[in-house]
């Protein structure tokens, strides 16, 4: 449990595995705050809470709104804001949106889904004083153009390309790298080749830490369960059981009882 604000220096020097979880509001951010090292305000909210098939409809306005809420609830964990689809398509647009994210929220860093095509854009943002977390491997914002979600690093060429990209991102100055949906051996090689933290999701246990979407890991989102998700709580069942108890007590006249009355 953290008692002081988590900084990038702490994350880079930690000898323990790092933990990251998503949050989208002040309530859950306050519950997670200090327990996890990092909170990610992910565009995954479009799927988990918006009922969408992908993350592409997230906007700068919505991401800033949710990041503000998370920052209101979390004062200790390191806060990372996802940059939505289309927000970093050129140096000028990317810098404008990144500056806005920093000015309008208290996020410690922004996260960008990275390829060789936007490497110079990412470096441009960093050179202007903004911390960037790079996301490589399975890139959710490419799901439509790639016709779904596919594991990366299966071929030697793809594995070499991912390692080369990670090394170039480190040289560009990124704060850390999230590696998603990458073959375990490739994710391990990337982690061992870099000096900055590597956070995995669906990429094995040999990265410097892990990240999961909170509604997946606590069993609230059950439309599908990715192979890499472990459910640490049957949240949906527990809430529905409590809800059923509430309904039963209201119908039977047991709630509210005298202890819940205001007395004049």
Write the layout of secondary structure elements.
Elements: H1 8-13, E1 18-22, H2 26-32, E2 38-41, H3 45-48, H4 60-73, E3 78-82, H5 91-104, E4 109-113, H6 119-127, E5 132-137, H7 156-172, E6 176-180, H8 184-193, E7 198-201, E8 209-212, H9 214-217, H10 235-251
Parallel strand pairs: 1-2, 1-8, 2-3, 3-4, 4-5, 5-6, 6-7, 7-8
Structural class: alpha/beta
Q: How much of the residues is beta strand, in percent?
A: 5-15%
Helix-residue proportion:
25-40%
Count of distinct strands: 8
Main CATH class of the largest domain:
Alpha Beta
**CATH architect. name of the largest domain:** Alpha-Beta Barrel
Helix segment tally: 10
* Rg calc: 20 Å
Largest sheet composition:
8 strands, parallel, barrel
CATH fold-type name of the largest domain: TIM Barrel
CATH homologous superfamily caption of the largest domain? Phosphoenolpyruvate-binding domains
Return the string of H and E elements.
Answer: HEHEHHEHEHEHEHEEHH
Low-confidence parts:
none
Placed side by side, the strands forming the largest sheet appear as 1-2-3-4-5-6-7-8
Q: Which term fits the overall shape?
A: globular
Domain module count: 2
Q: CA-to-CA gap between the ends?
A: 44 Å
Calculate the mean pLDDT score and round it. 96
Could you provide a short overview of the structure?
By secondary structure, this protein is α/β, with parallel strands linked by helices. Helix content is about 40%, strand content about 15%.
């Amino acid at each position: 449990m953290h008692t002081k604000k988590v900084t990038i220096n702490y994350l880079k020097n930690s000898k323990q595995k790092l933990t990251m979880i998503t949050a989208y509001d002040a309530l859950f951010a306050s519950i997670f705050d200090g327990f996890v090292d990092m909170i990610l305000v992910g565009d995954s909210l479009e799927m988990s809470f918006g009922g969408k098939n992908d993350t592409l409809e997230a906007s700068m306005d919505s991401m800033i709104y949710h990041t503000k809420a998370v920052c209101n609830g979390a004062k200790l964990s390191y806060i990372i804001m996802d940059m939505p689809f289309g927000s970093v398509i050129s140096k000028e647009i990317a810098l404008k949106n990144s500056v806005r994210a920093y000015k309008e929220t208290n996020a410690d860093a922004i996260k960008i889904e990275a390829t060789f095509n936007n490497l110079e854009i990412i470096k441009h943002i960093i050179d202007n004083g903004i911390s960037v977390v790079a996301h490589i491997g399975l890139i959710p914002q490419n799901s439509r153009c790639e016709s779904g979600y596919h594991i990366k690093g299966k071929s030697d060429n793809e594995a070499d390309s991912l390692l080369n990209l990670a090394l170039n991102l480190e040289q560009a100055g990124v704060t850390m790298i999230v590696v998603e949906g990458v073959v375990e051996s490739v994710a391990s090689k990337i982690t061992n080749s870099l000096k900055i933290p590597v956070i995995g999701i669906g990429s094995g246990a040999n990265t410097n830490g892990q990240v999961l979407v909170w509604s997946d890991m606590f069993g609230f989102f059950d439309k599908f369960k990715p192979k890499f998700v472990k459910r640490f709580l049957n949240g949906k069942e527990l809430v529905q059981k409590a809800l059923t108890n509430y309904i039963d007590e209201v119908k039977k006249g047991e709630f509210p009882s005298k202890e819940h009355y205001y007395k004049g």
